[in-house]
Each structure stands twice: as structure tokens, then as C-alpha cells.
Design a protein that fits this description.
The chain has 362 residues and is an alpha/beta fold. It has 13 helices and 9 strands. The chain has a 6-stranded parallel sheet with strand order 1-9-6-4-2-3, with helices on both faces. Strands 5-8-7 form a 3-stranded mixed sheet. The structure holds nicotinamide-adenine-dinucleotide and zinc ion (ZN).
Amino acid sequence: MVLDMKISKNISTYTFQRGAFLSLVDLLSSKIQDSAEGVLFLVDDYFSTRPLDLPHRSSQDLVFFVPTDEEPTTEFIDTLMVRIRKELKAHPGAVVGIGGGITLDTAKAISILLTNAGKAEDYQGWDLVRVPGIYKIGIPTISGTGAESSRTCVLINKAKNIKLGMNSHYSYFDHLILDLEFSATVPRQQFFYTGMDSYIHCVESLKGRFRHALADAYSHQTLTLCREVFSSGDMMADGNRELLMVASYFGGISIANTFVGVVHPISAGLSTVLGLHHCIANCIVMNVMEEFYPQEVAEFHEFLKRQEISLPLGITRQLSVDQFEDLYQSAIIHEKPLMNAFGADYKEILTREKVISIYKRM
Ligand code: NAD
Ligand code: ZN
């Protein structure tokens, strides 16, 4: 099966080194010529109570802590934009996102909306962003989603009951700072769930119909790195955190050039209907995917055992018929990944009964 011809893009520049965060100050000085121009920092709220030495350049600098109890919604982004516009006197010289996928996606969306009029939902979809956003720097503090290297920022739209990104070349960060120091403080369970996103992205990509040699190369390398990390004695040892940081980066590139498969649409249902976060939802779905990805699910179970990680069980036990219907609807809407997994007739394989029976096993 052949998709439309796509122009690929990578992150233009990045700094990869332990302690690389310290280079932020010089990077901002070299990028922002006007010393009065401010920097808009969007920082994971984990750091609101911890020391984080942000460079201070001008009185126009603004820092917003991004809450991570809920994944970003279009409503949240629009409300944040109103606050930012009120406090900013002029466009900032740069937007800097420091945190996990929630914060990185928030930074991408804000950078885009500062130069593209309208609301967040106007740009949910493919190639709808009209002009480049503000120069943006991404600093991931946890590894796995690939949000640092992907061409999207994922937002939940509650009114439309969908989880959909702003898929655009303008969603890429302009520069990344990859510093392994950050991930040392991530709680173990979270480290596993988020790390598994890299693994799952690449399993889905490699099992898809739209795979190709370039994406495959990134996916294979991502899986190799994930296997090394999650089969080892301590997934959070320094060396492993560094490998997972690279796996996440490669996984994001792979998925920017292909599509996910069955896990992500079903997981998106759990996020939209039950409010579960992306990475834990993926793991809950992966746990019952043996029909579609048998070897990989067996390997996933090995990783869980090796790292002594447990998954919540029985999460759909109390749901009503209507809620199962909502889950089905919010999964089946993801046409592209499902076509990637099953072909154009995906609804014949993934029938309503099949999808609901999968949800019932969680
Ligand atoms: P997250 O942003 O959900 O954060 C998870 C938790 O880890 C939060 O409590 C956060 O405060 C904490 N945390 C982050 N860094 C920490 C650190 N260094 N020490 C201690 N705690 C830390 O993390 P995530 O799993 O990376 O991101 C999930 C989000 O990413 C979802 O919103 C999902 O939709 C999105 N996502 C985006 C893409 C993309 O391509 N843009 C791909 C996959 C997922
Ligand atoms: Zn994912």
C-alpha cells in the first residue's frame, strides 16, 4: 500500500551530553538578537518545588508551570494562551519546554498558536498549521514518548471526544537539549510506562502496512535499545537512562515517518473516556494484545517481571454499556493507524464486539 508522498524532516540541531542543560543560556543568547526580547518557559510542574536554574535574560521572560495531572486538552491550551497573551507584551524570542510529553506538547502548541491565529482545535489534524511558530527548544526530562522528536503535539478535544495532534512540520522543535541528568528522579513505575511508549511505537510501526526501510531502521534500533534497558537488572542505571533517551528520540523519528497500529487507538479510548494517561494506558492495552502482537506481548511481560512493575487490573469492570460504546467510538475513529494495522477493511476485523471484548479484558 502506498501513502501520499511525504517530505520528511528531522530536528535541525541538538545538544546531547550529560549536563547539556547548562548550554541553554548560550543557545538563547545566540538565537535571540534583541536583548529585550523575552523567553517563554513552559516547565513541568514537578520542577515548581525543585531547584531548576533557568537562565534569566530579560524582564520580558515568563515562566509557566504546566500541570501534569491531566493530559493537555484544547481547552487548556486556549486558556493558557489567553493568560500568556495577557502577560506578554510582545512575541517572545523563544519558547522553551522542559518536562515530559505533556509539557513538550504544550510548548509546541503554544509556540504554534503565538503565530497562527485561532484556537488549538483549528490545527488538530494533518498539515493545517499555516506559518512557523516561535523558535522552540525542547528539553525532555523523562524518556519514551518521542514527543521531543516527533512532528505532532497531542491534544484531547473533549467536545469532539477525540485525541488528535497538530501534525505539522511546524510542530518539530527547532533545537533539543538531551541531558540524562533529568530522568534520575522519575518514579520507577512512570519510568517504565513512559519508556514502553518507545517500544510500543516501534512494534506497531514494524507490524504495519505503511512501513518502509527508513522508519524500520529507526524502529529496529529503538527496539534494540529498549531491550537492553528493560532486560537489564536496573532499567534506571545511568547508562540505561542514556540509552532510553536515545531510544525515545529514535522512536519519535520512526513514528513521524510511519504510523502506530492497534495499541494506540485502543489506548486513546482509555484516555478520552476514562482519563487515563497515555503511557500507562498503552501498557494496559499492550497487556491484552497477544492476538495481534504475540511475541512482543510475551517480551513485554518479561520486561514487567524483570523490572518488578505491576499494572492496574479490572479497570473496565464497572463500566456501563454506554461507556463501552464511547470507548469503541473513540478507538475506531483513528483511521490511519488502524489502516496501517489491518488495511482499509479494518472495521471488519476490529468489529464493535471485538473492540469491546478487548476492553473487557483490561
Ligand atoms: P508526562 O508529561 O505525562 O509526565 C509524567 C509524570 O512524570 C508527571 O507527573 C511529571 O511531572 C513527571 N516527571 C517528568 N519528568 C520528571 C522528572 N525528571 N523527575 C520526576 N518526575 C518527572 O510524561 P510522558 O509520559 O513523557 O508524556 C505523556 C504525554 O505525552 C501524553 O500527553 C501523551 O499524549 C503525549 N505524547 C506525545 C507524543 C508526541 O509525539 N507528541 C507521543 C506520545 C505521547
Ligand atoms: Zn505513544
